[in-house]
Design goal:
single chain, elongated
Amino acid sequence: MADTIFDFVAGKLEQATDFDKLEARGTVRLALKQSGLDAKSITRDQMTVVLQKVLPGELKTRGIDGPDAVCSGIVQALSGFADDSAAGAGHSPEAVFQRIGGN
């Protein structure tokens, strides 16, 4: 199993397309960059949004047929990924303001 959510998604993209490992990882990194997110700290929920909103456009630009279907399949697979790394936990704006407010 993949170490991180990024690795998991990049691996699934590689399997679902004719991308090699480098192309799949680079495409996911570009989608994350457009979203202002970091591959090291992305959460499953954040990645789901990237897969639904950003990555289909990146795949379409690269000539992948059925980019929405590819991303939907990855979203389904991602729902089973154990997000126990707690990447991003406590770093959301809500969590920061909650700590500041003492609640």
